[in-house]
Structure formats: structure tokens, C-alpha cells
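Re-run with default settings, no changes from the original entry. Doing this only to confirm the output is reproducible before filing.
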Amino acid sequence: MRADLKRRARILTIAGLTMGAVGIAVLWAAGVEFPFYPPPGILILGVGAVFVALTPWRWAAGVGALLGLFVLVGFVLSSVISGTGTENLLGEHGPGAVLGTVVQLLGVSTALVAGLIAVRRTEPAAHAARDMSGHVSRGSSDSVPEDHTGSGG
């Protein structure tokens, strides 16, 4: 179950990064000016998606989460410093800019959350859930009482 959740979260991380790159492409196509050609966010998120997809390491999805966070922080900073992010979101640069911004923000937010879920450590079986009486649930009908005496045995 947990492995399936982590696999799905990794896939969502890749999809979120790709969606973020598509959102930036829509912004670019809508005429929003970028300081470089092509917009670096497209390349950064695209390479990030390929990296998460092709690497076997569990932590690779964390790179996707960091990229999502990076773009979200960039959006906030561009909104605070120059107003560009909010202007795009509110339609001051046309409907294409609104669409691109929404797609980008949904994508990178998805990558951030899904990437964090994908890299989250699962609790080992030795630290199984304890019920109200202090017994350790090990997935069977047998329960072991917890030693509260401090005697160690």
C-alpha cells in the first residue's frame, strides 16, 4: 500500500513539474516577457521532470518538490517586487496569462506536495501504532504490553 502511494506520488511529481513547464510555455505564448530566451523555467522544470522520472533514488522526487517550491517562491517574489505574478493571475496581461499562471501554479504546487509525500520516510514496523492501553499493534491478534516500569525486562 505505502509503496503504491509513493509510486503514485512520484508520478504526480513528474506530472506537476511537466504541468508547471506547460504553464510557463502558455505564458510565453501569451506574450508575457521573460528575461531570457527560452524561458528558463520551462527548461528547469522539464529537466527536473526527466530527472525524477529516470533516476531510481527515492530522494529524486524531493528534487521535484524543491523545484516546485522554487517556482512558487519566484511567483511570490515577482508579485511582491514587481507585481508581475499577480498581474498575470488577475488578467492584466490577458486571458492567456491567467491560464498560463493558473496551470503553472497548480502544476508546481502538485509537484511540491507529491514530491514531499514520495520522499517521506515510512515508519518501520518496529514502531507500530500503540492503542489506548499501551499495547503495540503488530498487525495480528497478539498484543505485547509496553513496559512502563523502567526495569527493562
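The mean pLDDT is 82. Residues 55 and 61 are 9 Å apart (CA to CA).
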